[in-house]
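Subject: for your reference before the review

Hello V.,

The reviewers asked for a structural picture of the protein, and I figured it would be easier to keep everything in one thread rather than splitting it across files. Below is the amino acid sequence we used in the manuscript, unchanged from the supplementary table.
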Amino acid sequence: MANSWWEIQILCDSALEDLIFWRLEKFGCRGMSTQLKGHSQLVLAHLPQIQAQLLDLAALALWVNQDALTVGLPVPITRWHLIDEEDWASSWKQYWEPQEIGDRFLIYPAWLPLPDPSERILLRLDPGAAFGTGTHPTTQLCMEALEMRLGFSSDHDNVVADIGCGSGILSIASVLLGAKKVYGVDIDPLAVGAARNNRSLNNMSEQDLVIEQGSLETLSKLTNGEPVDGILCNILAEVIIDLIPLMNAIVKPTSWGVISGVLLDQVKPIADTLEQNNWIVATLWKRQDWCCFNIRRS
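And here is what came back from the structure prediction:
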């Protein structure tokens, strides 16, 4: 069953949802979603069978339990089973509903009929195996920060780089808010495919939104060494720390950034690394256990 996927179901206290999303992402899961089950949350995630054995899944369940005990919450119930490849991508979609984010955006699943026109900016999305549906607090924080940065600006010359673009949700949001050009890069080929598909879903051109596989080195080549006005980075904190010194090569003295994927206890090392590399933390937004840095050059 080389083309099978593990479907992991975790029934947990609602306050544990974000921590479990973080744990599942670190484990390599994709297509994550959540739904309310009484007074609890049912978190659903998927992982290619080839990436995990039964012992790995048992270890994941143990880590989830330890995470819950660490913060003084009830131990979740974790179950898993195998599903066929053709079923995995659709199995979680039944739980994902349209979602309003910030004052401007409506994130809308691509497989639903188009909604009635509204004042909100419609962003259609089919994340597939990529991270970024708008349900996770880090994505929401980034979109709200983008809205404040670009949504009320008369300057439409912003060139934006999205490092670790995932489904492309932040890249697409930047274009919808008036960015002149956006570059999205991700090391995961599945994410690149999903982001390109979502670019088409939102009727954007390859010139306005460039999406390629890679990281900062690829980004430098795409921009021909020209610095960008803004940087988006919503990935794991340990990766962000390694990337921050490298960002200096692609920014201007006036550049800004939005960085998330950071848990509360990871704030200090991120802030210290930013300061050491001539960034100022203008604001730090928090939602539940997660943070979003709005930064600018010092």
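For the response letter, the relevant points are probably these. The longest helix spans residues 54-70. The mean pLDDT is 90.

Happy to draft the paragraph if you're swamped.

O.
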